[in-house]
Structures are given as structure tokens and as C-alpha cells.
Design a protein that fits this description.
The protein has a domain at about 40-125: HIT family, subunit A (2-Layer Sandwich), CATH 3.30.428. β1 and β2 form a beta hairpin. The chain is built from two helices and five strands, in the order αβββαββ. Helix content is about 20%, strand content about 20%. With about 140 residues, the protein is α+β, with helices and mostly antiparallel strands. It is globular. The chain has helices spanning about 30-35, 80-95, and strands spanning about 40-45, 50-55, 65-70, 100-105, 120-125. Bound molecules: zinc ion. Zinc ion (ZN) binds near residues 29, 31 and 72.
Length: about 140
């Protein structure tokens, strides 16, 4: 582009970050055992950087999917690029499949997180899933 006279400035936003490991260093992670070691899973879609599987036990509705990055991160705050990649793949898949969805992820055990992944949950009228969240009344709030 410079040869054509265009002004070009290149910024490498992640140049000072460590390289993303291709192998997950923790063999106790169930998702990494699927991705790295071929543990059994019902794979719905594969990308070079992510995988979509059906949750064991079927999930909370028919069609519930988990989107996993191919690299292990502790949670969605660990590496925003990995988190964005998982959401990108979830969005592509939901667009391809059509319909209405919740996309959810969590950080920390109080937020029901174990291993990082994104949930794609298909929604239909009257499916009785408990969203949207509602703030508990004063009587229901836990005592701290
Ligand atoms: Zn893992």
C-alpha cells in the first residue's frame, strides 16, 4: 500500500503478550481432553480455533451447545482474544442454525463457572428456562 502512496501504520496490539499455548498444560480439564486427546464428545462444528459440542447429559434444552476454545484459559477474563473468538464462533453458529438463542459465559464458582466455555442455548416461547434474571425480593436475598 505504501508503494501506491497510501499512508499505512501497523499496530501489533498483542506483540508484548506471551504466545498462546497450543496444548493445554492441565490434563485434568475435560474440554482439553476432548480437544487434545480425543476424549469422546458429540462434536457439532469445528473451527481451527474452536469447537462446538453437545453437553454431556443433553444440556438444559434440546440444541444446547458448548463452544470451546482450542486453547485453555481459566475464564473469559484471562485472554480477551480467546473469549472474543469463542463468542465469534458462537455467533457464526447461531446465525447458521437460525432461531433465537442465549449466549452465556461465566467467571468464578459463584457465577457457576468451572472451565471456560460459551453456552449457546436455543430459546422458544414457553420453554420455561429461568431467564431473564430477576432480582430477588428483600426476603429472598442471602444474608451476608
Ligand atoms: Zn482446558
Amino acid at each position: 500500500m505504501r508503494e501506491t502512496g497510501a499512508r499505512v501504520q501497523i499496530t501489533h496490539h498483542h506483540i508484548n503478550r506471551p504466545p498462546v499455548p497450543h496444548k493445554h498444560p492441565r490434563p485434568d480439564c475435560p474440554f482439553c481432553s476432548i480437544i487434545d486427546d480425543g476424549a469422546p464428545a458429540t462434536i457439532v462444528h469445528e473451527w481451527h480455533d474452536a469447537l462446538a459440542i453437545k453437553p454431556r447429559g443433553g444440556g438444559c434444552t434440546d440444541g444446547h451447545l458448548l463452544v470451546l476454545p482450542r486453547v485453555h484459559v481459566a475464564d473469559f477474563t484471562t485472554d480477551p482474544v480467546v473469549s472474543a473468538t469463542v463468542q465469534l464462533r458462537a455467533a457464526e453458529l447461531a446465525q447458521e442454525l437460525g432461531g433465537q438463542w442465549n449466549y452465556l459465559t461465566s467467571r468464578g464458582p459463584d457465577a457457576t463457572q468451572t472451565v471456560f466455555h460459551g453456552h449457546l442455548v436455543p430459546r422458544t416461547a414457553g420453554d420455561t428456562l429461568a431467564l431473564p434474571w430477576t432480582r430477588p425480593t428483600r426476603e429472598q436475598e442471602p444474608i451476608r
